[in-house]
Amino acid sequence: MYTKDYKFSDRLKTLRKSKKLTQVQISELIGVQQGTYSRWENGTLEPGLELVVKLANIFGTTTDYLLGQKPYSIISSLPLEQLDLTNIANFSKDEFDILKHSIAVSVARNKIKATELKDRVIEKISCQKKMQNF
């Protein structure tokens, strides 16, 4: 149903750990037994829609993300000008995905040409590197 990188169980476990919460704490917050929650993280059981919504609210994410859609965090909707591009040479795949999304949003919202956008990105990287050297 989901690709290995984006399985519900993997995302659930990653989100819980990022919030430094235990399975017991999460299960108490949503009103299920810890064993049930554990099976969700192990991939042997999936919660119903109502519980997926509760989980998304607890973790501050969307149901789409939990259910395997392409991940875009809140930062990915930031204007391109607000992204830190100083370390672009070492960006992870996720960081490049965020950059690509921001570029697409900039092009769509601002109706600018790709060459103009390229020039803006190059200028931004140059300015950020100069600021880093101060």
UniProtKB/TrEMBL annotation:
Residues 12-66 form the HTH cro/C1-type domain. SUPFAM superfamilies: lambda repressor-like DNA-binding domains. It holds the Pfam family HTH_3. GO terms for molecular function: DNA binding. Gene3D superfamilies: lambda repressor-like DNA-binding domains (1.10.260.40). The keyword Coiled coil does not apply. It comes from the Bacteria. Keywords: DNA-binding. PANTHER family: HTH-TYPE TRANSCRIPTIONAL REGULATOR XRE, TRACRIPTIONAL REGULATORY PROTEIN-RELATED-RELATED. This is DNA-binding helix-turn-helix protein.
